[in-house]
Design goal:
single chain; 467 residues; mainly beta; 15-stranded parallel β-sheet; 13-stranded parallel β-sheet; 45 strands; 2% helix; disordered N terminus
């Protein structure tokens, strides 16, 4: 086939177009993408980020925006209005800036972008990547994802390029309204720092504009609520992670967990539904309420994890590394309301540090179940054992608020009031297990030691097969 050349000023969306050094090369049946290079920090015009984003929206294929700005960073972009919403697949890669050395030097600062619903970056086209940016001080969200199969890595969202200075976005750090997106990754280089935002750190939510139920998003390896050192508290104001009317999302994983700490007013993770669709979410391998070492208190203001009207979710697990450290918070885990059934809590340290030998207390109850039935704390295998110790309140409390029901929950195989080996006392400040007004609760094969009381039954309670 004969090759034809055209000047770049001619745009086309036909298959088989490649932009190279100011030319378009047309060849049969394959679409290749363009690379746009940002060479200045201007609001608009030649070499600007805005022009590159606009050009990417009019070019077929998955385009890339690279950076080559003279001088030493940080390089501060202060757009005068909303940046273009990306409607085509794109890679915006701040790591291509020549002075990038592992932390962002490309800073998108929304201080002059306007008030109202002004987001930093909006991904509407899907199959996109944003990496190596600091995104701060936009009036709404740092990043909004309205599409599927996007990846967000190596960014500081709500934190300036020094990794410590809080410049939060007006609401959420990242809002996800689509499925199959990845925030972070399995290597330290992929880590996002998502902190100091005035709403949630990360929101996962099905809305009217979503293409069906939002599912299968992965949040791994991030620092959410701390600075880049993993120790300094710079919490998001509301929930660090909120999963709302969304299913089968994964927060962490064995060996690839997140730090989820220091929420100023709310929870580490909240998993909630108002339409009965929130289920099958997995929370594993995270440090919830601690620093990166798992030994210092960086607690969330309310619960480490709150499950509210959501069912069949897994907190922890039985494989190595699946358990979470849930310590330093007000309450460790809270499961509440009638739709919260079939939730499983296994293999976690609740109220102790990552070594399993020292108390790192939640200031209230370790595990609280209110008006929720048919949930399981622990299991028959040793790997399912939770260590629920050192908390200021009860180790486990199950109760109801009339006319609610909190029946047929299972508490099995846990160490409640000891260290990880079961031979050193680390008692909770009240009862090991406190049951109020429940029935059908099974308490099986637990080691309950050094608490103010072992098991307290308050009200009409039937315990099936106590051992």
């Amino acid at each position: 086939m004969k090759t034809m050349k055209f000047r770049r000023s001619i745009f086309s969306t036909m298959p088989g177009i490649l932009f190279i050094a100011g030319w378009m090369v047309v060849f049969g049946g394959i679409t290749q993408a363009a690379v746009f290079v940002v060479t200045n920090i201007n609001n608009n015009g030649t070499g600007s980020l805005r022009l590159a984003m606009n050009n990417a929206n009019t070019t077929a294929g998955k385009d890339t925006i690279n950076f080559n700005i003279p001088g030493a960073g940080p390089h501060l972009f202060r757009p005068a209005s909303l940046l273009p919403i990306q409607v085509e697949p794109i890679v915006i890669d701040g790591t291509t800036q020549p002075d990038y050395a592992g932390t962002p030097v490309i800073v998108l600062d929304g201080i002059f972008a306007g008030s109202g619903n002004i987001d930093g970056i909006v991904l509407s086209g899907g199959d996109s990547m944003v990496k190596g940016l600091a995104i701060i001080r936009f009036s709404d969200r740092g990043i909004e994802i309205r599409s599927t199969e996007n990846t967000i890595q190596s960014n500081y969202i709500g934190i300036s390029s020094d990794g410590f200075t809080p410049f939060g976005n007006g609401t959420d750090g990242i809002a996800i309204f689509g499925s199959n997106n990845i925030i972070g990754g399995t290597t330290p280089a992929a880590r996002n720092i998502i902190s100091a935002n005035n709403g949630r750190g990360i929101l996962i939510n099905t809305i009217a504009q979503s293409s069906g139920l939002v599912i299968n998003n992965i949040i791994q390896g991030n620092y959410i609520g701390t600075a880049s050192d993993g120790a300094t508290s710079v919490g998001n104001r509301l929930d660090n992670i909120l999963i709302f009317n969304a299913a089968n999302n994964t927060i962490g994983g064995p060996g690839v967990g997140n730090i989820i700490s220091a929420s100023v007013q709310s929870n580490g993770i909240r998993i909630i539904s108002n339409d009965g669709t929130t289920s099958g979410n997995i929370v594993q391998g995270n440090l919830i309420g601690t620093d990166v070492s798992g030994s210092l208190d960086r607690g969330n203001a309310l619960s480490g994890i709150l499950v509210q009207d959501a069912f069949d979710n897994m907190i922890g697990g039985t494989v190595e590394g699946a358990g979470n450290i849930i310590s330093g918070n007000n309450r460790g885990i809270e499961i509440r309301n009638s739709m919260s059934t079939g939730n499983i809590v296994q293999g976690n340290f609740i109220g102790i540090d990552s070594t399993g030998t020292s108390a790192l207390r939640n200031s209230g109850v370790g595990v609280l179940i209110i008006d929720a039935s048919n949930n399981t704390i622990g299991g028959s295998e040793a790997s399912a054992r939770n260590i629920i110790s050192g908390n200021t309140g009860h180790g486990i409390r199950i109760s109801l608020l009339a006319p609610g029901v909190a029946d047929n929950n299972v508490i099995e195989g846990n160490y409640i009031g000891t260290n990880v080996t079961g031979d050193v006392e680390l008692g909770n400040g009240n009862a090991g297990i406190f049951l109020a007004g429940t029935s059908g609760t099974k308490i099986l094969h637990n080691l309950i030691s050094d608490n103010i009381d072992g098991v307290v039954l308050d009200g009409t309670v039937f315990i099936a097969k106590p051992t």
